[in-house]
C-alpha cells in the first residue's frame, strides 16, 4: 500500500513539473517566414536575472546558415546572425504578458518594441511594433 502511494505521488509530481514547464515561454522555438510560411530559424528564450532574453540558435533557410547581420547597427553590424541575441530583457506583468524590451529584426537591422504572450502550450505570439502596439507585425512561433 505504501509503495502504491509513493508511486502515485511520484507520478503526480512528475506530471505537474512537466505541465508547468510546458506552460512557460522559456525553451526552443521555431520561427517561420511570414511571406512563404517556410521554417526560418530556431530561437531559444532563456531567463536571466528574472528577465527573458532570446538568441538565434540556428538559421534554417537554405544557404543562410552563416548569414551576417549586414543591416544592423553598432556592435551587431556584420556579426553572424546565428548566436545573436534578438530580445533584450522582457519582464512579465501580472497578466502573464512579457513586455518592456526590444526585438531585433536581423533582416532589416531594425529594433522594435515587443511583447510576447503564450497563447497555447506550444504556440507563442511575438509582436514587434513601433510606438503603439497597433502598428506592427505579429509572428507565431511553435515550441520545439
UniProtKB/TrEMBL annotation:
One matching Pfam family: DUF2147
InterPro entries on file: DUF2147
Stretches assigned to the DUF2147 domain: 27-143
Domain of life: Bacteria
Protein name: DUF2147 domain-containing protein
Amino acid at each position: 500500500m505504501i509503495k502504491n502511494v509513493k508511486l502515485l505521488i511520484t507520478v503526480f509530481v512528475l506530471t505537474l513539473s512537466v505541465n508547468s514547464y510546458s506552460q512557460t515561454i522559456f525553451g526552443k522555438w521555431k520561427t517561420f517566414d511570414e511571406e512563404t510560411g517556410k521554417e526560418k530559424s530556431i530561437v531559444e528564450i532563456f531567463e536571466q536575472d528574472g528577465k527573458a532574453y532570446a538568441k538565434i540558435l540556428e538559421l534554417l533557410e537554405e544557404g543562410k546558415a552563416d548569414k551576417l547581420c549586414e543591416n544592423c547597427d553598432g556592435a551587431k553590424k556584420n556579426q553572424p546572425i546565428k548566436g545573436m541575441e534578438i530580445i533584450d530583457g522582457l519582464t512579465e506583468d501580472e497578466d502573464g504578458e512579457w513586455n518592456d524590451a526590444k526585438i531585433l529584426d536581423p533582416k532589416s537591422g531594425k529594433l522594435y518594441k515587443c511583447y510576447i504572450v503564450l497563447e497555447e502550450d506550444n504556440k507563442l505570439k511575438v509582436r514587434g511594433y513601433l510606438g503603439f502596439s497597433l502598428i506592427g507585425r505579429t509572428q507565431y512561433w511553435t515550441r520545439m
